[in-house]
Design brief:
With about 60 residues, this protein is α+β, with helices and mostly antiparallel strands. It has one domain. The protein contains one helix and three strands, in the order E-H-E-E. A hairpin with a 7-residue loop joins strand 2 and strand 3. It is elongated.
């Protein structure tokens, strides 16, 4: 059975366009190159931040 590890990234002031589309895509592509896959994203109520959860298969440590 596959085991997963998770990584949470918060993009503050996402709704206020703190990040350009290019900056956002660069960050997503960087995470993808490291093996992370976007599992979920949300903007909590009364928040401007985008919270994204990424996952990847757990690497063997043996």
């Amino acid at each position: 059975m596959d085991q997963w590890e998770y990584h949470i990234v918060t993009f503050p002031k996402f709704l206020h366009r703190k990040y350009t589309e290019e900056q956002f895509l660069l960050e997503l592509n960087k995470l993808g190159e490291e093996g992370w896959e976007l599992a979920s994203s949300s903007i909590p109520t009364n928040s401007n931040a985008l919270i994204s959860i990424f996952k990847r298969k757990k690497r063997n440590t043996t």
